């Protein structure tokens, strides 16, 4: 860091250090013009780089329909390179996503399908206990590796006592031994195929060729200036065995992995057991490193590109146990990346340490997915600050969406992009991020304390079946106590951070490669006088030797918690020196709290807020952050339940429900907070650098002895930078705001200025920009003769337009007979939008561009229990011209009642379709379901004239061994076009006419998840005229299931191939449980059961009869009364009703003509009476109330209190006042703002505000006499999306928007003034 470079970073930051969002190319067909338009929107928003990523690259995934065109297809490459060309033209940079980790591209599966030797292996064991002759047979497909006979019971510990285990020979199918008269345990160690072999150089070379080689072939011309790197997300776990593992282990470690030694991988607490486990994990890490990670690193180095990552949890959180189980040696592999990192559920300290110590240039943060649509820029900056302080220098916002499909497509929102109303202020936010990331990239991290990541201890004390032995647990607990948790969900400072002590996380390789000089351990450009060893039972011998050298060379080594008892792989010369230093007291022992207190007293930097220091020569930069227990987002946000490990997965449903109910608490700063910073006096003069404004000023210091103390104000936001030893003098500090000169009134002129741009259909139906709307209204039913003034004040319930009660639901009950006496509750849904706030979207992290077909949900059901829906429909004489069929989709056996009778059973599938004989009039319908599933039961029903149109595939489950399902079918002619969409749950091999055409499953991260893979196959050239056979063979019968949806066009006609109960190979049975919504896996959409729901995905209504459900003929006979507030300046209003309507505005009736009403000036409240037989509650409306607005009035406060509860956009506040104040410094203070603010005074732009305090100096534009003040406040998409979509991503408190005030004019302490409003504003 040179001072000139730092000054330039402050005043003119390099935008390449700004936000680098993930740009999801999913949700709609890619249009090059649309992508170019989006590229320019990002550029204009201050963004200069993005990561291109596909969510459903080769087939449906996470509820998202397949990307179009598929990733890496010729059409995709054409579009990608066109975008690269435009990016080069405007100076934009791109990163590509490698689709190796989190992915639906199925790349590894395709490689293994073509070359089965590329499949990975897992080492497992099977055992039998008893006397006499024993035999263990390997499971189907498994390969015996070794076996052992234990004469002691080892079922609990996993290993016998020393000397009690004997080697047993294995044969092709297993192992046999004679235990004699006493009971013994025969254990067979066998390898089973799973995933991809990341330990095989040939397999990894093929994988890198398939991904990076393709980018090199298609886009190498853009490497360096446009394509600057790649991103890898959630790489699958490294295999626990491979075809070459045993030989390589023996070659590298000097002894073979016999059956006796393999027993140690599953337990045992002796030193020899620990050494074998350590050597095993070391070998596993070396093989993966050499085969995959080193070639990946060299490829990027060869092309001058960076590689960033966010790996699987809990490795990304730095947790030693989980990271070792997944990756064998997480620090070792992380050191191969130029930009290691995590998402905001991970940990920055470990990754910034890897970057600092192993030649990385940036530290990555993917944030803040799943934080909701309503996070403001101020809140986002607050969330980012602790990560910047902990070493992050590359902020990767999650995300920017290519398409949002009328607001109904999202993936772990928000989308931080041009759709957000605050986007005009995003360039200022991007500059702020650029400024801090560049400043924090200059020089080196100055920190005296290092914490060893206890990898070696965990390697030695972690069993192959995932059990952490006491030594591993102790090391992890000590490490986390020191390091803390940085997770956005549960941020808890470790003992060091709580004491104000900064630290670096270091790994064994870094320590071994360091040198000791001047009482410090020097690694790369960093130096540490203290190294903390957290609860380690073992150290590597190299680490032990280097730490002994530090401890005896003037530095400090402190063992926190457990004290090491040996070295690995053995007690060599390094351990001898360490043990001697420990015995002599040169190596200290301490608790986390004690050592933190000691280090805090010795720290060079002491401050009452968190800090980080960067140094170049004699210049030091200190970042101070007001993100702590006083200001910022209150932490911890959630309890321990938010954490997950390698054996369980995050509960997104619980998370979503909790956040929607509780949200988070944000405490903005007030601009008055001042931090006290103490540093060595020798650091030199101090300057205060304002990261928001990009300005600097001198900062006074008080010298006491060898310490200098400065008072650091947070006058412009929650971050401040203090620079010591700067070469260029700074101007003196300016005046500070103090005394309140005037407080402006609460009521302002207001004009509502919509910002939503629907040119691409992103925020509403069609291509018309949505007007200001009201979706939420108060409702009650009353007779048509009642007038608004006679309506009771009580009994009003909130409803949402289009949603109403269309029946009643009951259950769960243990028997069908109990349903009649059960509590029946309203079944509320919308004929065009389905279930309100549909929980189906929680697991898919948001809706995916279509209305789910299931529109009734009953929760908390156990398999075998009964639930029921009671509804009905009305038919007119003209609707009886052809026969009718009743279709029902539900996950269980059903009993269907119609007009008091019970219909005969119509099959045992998820979907049943049967003819019904009914006449004109109202008909009562009851659907009772005995659930096959635990949890929620979802169902749908519809009337149709063409049952074949509704036919959908069924999930089939194999019932015989080997586990396989197949079907023989005949084609009437030569295939012209044939696509089969094949879905499997569980790993499977797919064959057509005996030839392998693909593999599914077993290649994904988070192996603990249900693995459902759906993918289209173009089989035009593989199918034959005449007989064909499709066969799917499953690796594991547990949970195996198959879904097929295909269209085959031949020269003799079309054939639909749909998995059904009549498939015979493997004797499958139907599984009525669905994978997500039934639409997700379909190759083509069938008619929607809700005939009005096709507005979103364009599917035709088809043969579904457009009936309006009603439980009884008289149910909707009453009048539906609705009440709501009008937005400011409403001039004309549209009222889309079912039936006839009467409207009152502020108590006066106004005529409704053709569904529209002219609104008188200053009208505030509307009351609507709808007479209809087709809708109850919000269903009396077919859409929202819409407005044309002009200028009106608004009070300071939440926009929802001003009739703008569904509004996302801008509001222009206006006020005219008379000023007779002094000419001195004057500030405008807006008080509380939730959103961004742009200020104009007397027609001149004054500035824009993103952060508290929302305060600007205005004396340059303020004049004596009359002044016109305008403030444009922009909010987030949360209010609009919360009401118009079933988004899972609007949390409690995030709808809150507006200028809350008080709005004041401030002067310095000595000033006084008077202000009067313009006469019209009194």
Provide a quick synopsis of the model:
With 1322 residues, the protein is α+β, with helices and mostly antiparallel strands. Helices cover 19% and strands 34% of the residues.
Describe the structure.
- It is built from 24 helices and 82 strands.
- It has 1322 residues and is α+β, with helices and mostly antiparallel strands.
- Among the domains are: 3-97 and 368-439, no CATH class; 106-229 and 237-304, no CATH class; 735-772 and 1192-1322, Jelly Rolls (Sandwich), CATH 2.60.120.260; 847-952 and 1089-1095, Galactose-binding domain-like (Jelly Rolls, Sandwich); 955-1071, Jelly Rolls.
- Strands 41, 72, 73, 76, 77, 79 and 82 form a seven-stranded antiparallel β-sheet that branches. The protein has a six-stranded parallel β-sheet with strand order 11-10-3-2-1-15, with helices on one face.
- This is Alpha-L-rhamnosidase-like protein.
How many helices? The count is 24
Give the % helix: 10-25%
Q: How many strand units?
A: 82
SS strand fraction = 25-35%
Radius of gyration equals 34 Å
Structural category is alpha+beta
Largest sheet: 7 strands, antiparallel
Q: Could you give the distance between the termini? A: 57 Å
Could you name the ranges where pLDDT drops below 50 across 5 or more consecutive residues? Answer: 154-163
Shape: globular
Compute the average pLDDT. Answer: 94
């Amino acid at each position: 860091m040179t001072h000139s470079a730092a000054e330039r970073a402050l005043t003119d930051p390099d935008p390449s250090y700004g936000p680098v969002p993930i740009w999801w190319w999913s949700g709609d067909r890619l249009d090059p013009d649309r992508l170019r338009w989006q590229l320019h929107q990002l550029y204009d928003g201050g963004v200069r780089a993005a990561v291109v990523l596909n969510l459903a690259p080769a087939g449906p995934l996470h509820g998202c329909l397949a990307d179009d065109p598929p990733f890496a297809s010729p059409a995709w490459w054409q579009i990608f390179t066109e975008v690269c060309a435009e990016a080069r033209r405007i100076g934009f940079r791109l990163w590509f996503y490698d689709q190796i980790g989190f992915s639906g591209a199925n790349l590894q599966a395709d490689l293994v399908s073509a070359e089965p030797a590329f499949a990975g292996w897992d080492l497992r064991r099977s055992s039998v206990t008893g006397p006499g002759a024993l035999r263990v047979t390997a499971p189907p497909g498994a390969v015996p590796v070794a076996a052992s006979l234990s004469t002691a019971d080892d079922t609990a510990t996993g290993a016998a006592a020393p000397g009690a285990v004997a080697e047993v020979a294995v044969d092709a199918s297993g192992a046999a031994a004679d235990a004699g008269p006493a009971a013994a345990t025969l254990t067979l160690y066998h390898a089973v195929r799973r995933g991809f072999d990341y330990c095989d150089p040939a397999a990894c070379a093929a994988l890198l060729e398939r991904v990076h080689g393709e980018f090199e072939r298609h886009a190498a011309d853009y490497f360096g200036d446009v394509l600057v790197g790649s991103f890898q997300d959630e790489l699958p776990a490294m295999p626990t065995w491979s075809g070459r593992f045993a030989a390589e282990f023996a070659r590298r470690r000097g002894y073979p992995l016999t059956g006796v030694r393999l027993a140690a991988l599953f337990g045992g607490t002796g030193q020899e057991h620990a050494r074998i486990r350590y050597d095993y994990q070391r070998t596993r890490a070396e093989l993966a490193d050499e085969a995959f990670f080193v070639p990946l690193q060299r490829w990027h180095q060869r092309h001058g590109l960076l590689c960033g990552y966010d790996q699987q949890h809990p490795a990304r959180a730095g947790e030693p146990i989980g990271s070792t189980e997944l990756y064998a040696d997480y620090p070792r592999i992380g050191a191969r990346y130029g930009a290691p990192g995590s998402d905001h559920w991970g940990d920055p300290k470990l990754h910034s340490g890897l970057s600092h110590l192993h030649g990385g240039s940036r530290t990555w943060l993917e944030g803040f997915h799943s934080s909701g649509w309503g996070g403001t820029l101020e809140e986002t900056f607050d969330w980012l600050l602790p990560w910047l302080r902990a070493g992050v220098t590359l902020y990767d916002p999650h995300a920017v969406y290519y398409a949002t499909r009328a607001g109904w497509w999202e993936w772990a929102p928000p989308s931080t992009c041009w759709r957000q109303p605050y986007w005009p202020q995003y360039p200022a936010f991007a500059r702020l991020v650029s400024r801090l990331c560049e400043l924090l990239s200059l020089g080196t991290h100055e920190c005296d304390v290092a914490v060893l990541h206890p990898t070696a201890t965990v390697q030695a004390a972690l069993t192959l079946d995932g059990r952490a032995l006491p030594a591993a647990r102790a090391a992890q607990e000590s490490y986390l106590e020191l390091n803390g948790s940085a997770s956005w969900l549960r941020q808890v400072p470790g003992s060091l951070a709580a004491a104000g002590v900064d630290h670096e996380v270091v790994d064994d390789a870094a320590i071994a490669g360091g040198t000791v000089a001047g009482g410090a351990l020097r690694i790369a450009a960093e130096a540490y006088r203290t190294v903390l060893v957290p609860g380690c039972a073992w150290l590597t011998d190299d680490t032990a030797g280097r730490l002994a050298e530090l401890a005896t060379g003037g530095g400090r080594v402190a063992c926190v918690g457990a004290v090491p008892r040996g070295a690995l792989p053995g007690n060599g010369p390094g351990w001898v020196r360490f043990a001697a230093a420990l015995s002599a007291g040169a190596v200290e022992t301490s608790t986390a709290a004690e050592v933190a207190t000691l280090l805090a007293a010795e720290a060079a930097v002491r401050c009452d807020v968190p800090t980080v220091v960067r140094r170049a020569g004699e210049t030091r930069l200190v970042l101070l952050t007001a993100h702590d227990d006083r200001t910022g987002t209150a932490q911890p946000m959630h309890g321990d339940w938010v954490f997950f490990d390698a054996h369980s997965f995050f509960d997104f449903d619980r998370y979503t429900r909790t956040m929607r109910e509780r949200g988070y608490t944000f405490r903005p700063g007030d601009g008055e907070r001042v931090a006290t910073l103490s540093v060595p006096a020798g650091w030199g003069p101090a300057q205060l650098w304002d990261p928001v404004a990009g300005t600097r000023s001198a900062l006074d210091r008080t010298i006491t002895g060898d310490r200098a103390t400065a008072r650091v104000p947070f006058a412009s936001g929650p971050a401040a930078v203090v620079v010591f030893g700067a070469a260029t003098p700074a101007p003196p500090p300016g005046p500070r705001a103090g005394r309140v000169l005037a407080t402006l009134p609460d009521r302002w002129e207001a004009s509502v200025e919509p910002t939503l741009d629907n040119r691409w259909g992103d925020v509403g139906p069609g291509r018309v920009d949505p007007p200001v709307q009201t979706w939420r209204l108060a409702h009650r039913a009353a007779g048509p003769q009642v007038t608004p003034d006679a309506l009771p004040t009580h009994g009003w319930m909130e409803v949402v337009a289009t949603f109403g009660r269309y029946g009643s639901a009951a259950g769960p009950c243990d028997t069908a007979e109990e349903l009649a006496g059960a509590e029946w509750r309203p079944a509320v849904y919308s004929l065009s939008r389905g279930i309100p706030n549909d929980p189906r979207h929680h697991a898919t992290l948001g809706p995916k561009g279509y209305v789910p077909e299931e529109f009734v949900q009953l929760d908390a059901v156990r398999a075998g229990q009964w639930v029921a829906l009671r509804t009905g429909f009305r038919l007119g004489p003209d609707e009886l011209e052809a026969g009718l069929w009743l279709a029902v989709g539900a996950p269980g056996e059903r009993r269907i009642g119609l007009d008091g009778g019970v219909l005969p059973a119509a099959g045992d599938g998820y979907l049943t379709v049967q003819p019904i004989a009914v006449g004109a009039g109202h008909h009562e319908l009851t659907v009772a379901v005995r659930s096959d599933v635990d949890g929620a039961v979802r169902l749908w029903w519809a009337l149709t004239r063409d049952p074949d149109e509704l036919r959908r595939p069924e999930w089939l489950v194999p019932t015989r061994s080997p586990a396989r399902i197949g079907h023989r079918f005949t084609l009437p002619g030569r295939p012209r076009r044939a696509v089969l969409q094949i879905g499997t749950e569980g790993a499977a091999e797919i064959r057509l006419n005996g030839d392998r055409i693909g593999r599914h499953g077993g290649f994904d991260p988070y192996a603990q998840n249900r693995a459902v893979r759906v993918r289209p196959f173009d089989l035009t050239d593989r199918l034959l005229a005449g007989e064909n056979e499709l066969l799917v063979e499953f690796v594991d019968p547990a949970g195996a299931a198959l879904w097929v949806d295909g269209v085959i066009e031949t020269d003799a006609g079309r054939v639909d191939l749909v998995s059904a109960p009549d498939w015979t190979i493997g004797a499958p049975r139907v599984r009525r449980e669905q994978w997500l919504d039934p639409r997700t896996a379909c190759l083509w959409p069938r008619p929607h059961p809700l005939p009005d729901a096709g507005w979103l995905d364009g599917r035709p209504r088809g043969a579904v009869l457009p009936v309006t459900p009603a439980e009884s003929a008289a149910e909707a006979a009453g009048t539906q009364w609705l009440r709501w507030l009008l937005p400011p300046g409403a001039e004309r209003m549209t009222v889309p009703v079912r039936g006839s309507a009467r409207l009152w505005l502020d108590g006066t009736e106004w005529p409704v003509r053709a569904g529209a009403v002219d609104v008188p000036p200053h009208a505030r409240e509307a009351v609507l009476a709808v007479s209809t037989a087709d809708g109850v509650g919000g269903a009396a409306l077919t859409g929202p109330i819409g407005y044309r607005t002009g200028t009106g009035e608004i009070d300071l406060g939440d926009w929802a209190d001003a009739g703008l509860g569904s509004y996302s956009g801008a509001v222009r506040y206006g006020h005219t006042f008379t000023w007779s104040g002094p000419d001195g410094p004057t500030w405008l203070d807006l008080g509380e703002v939730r959103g961004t603010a742009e200020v104009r005074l007397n027609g001149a732009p004054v500035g824009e505000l993103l952060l508290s305090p929302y305060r600007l100096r205005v004396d340059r534009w303020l004049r004596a006499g009359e002044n016109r003040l305008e403030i444009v406040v922009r909010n987030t998409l949360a209010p609009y999306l919360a009401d118009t979509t079933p988004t899972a991503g609007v949390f409690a408190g995030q709808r809150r928007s507006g200028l809350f005030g008080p709005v004041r004019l401030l002067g310095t302490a000595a000033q006084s003034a008077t202000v009067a409003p313009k006469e019209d504003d009194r």
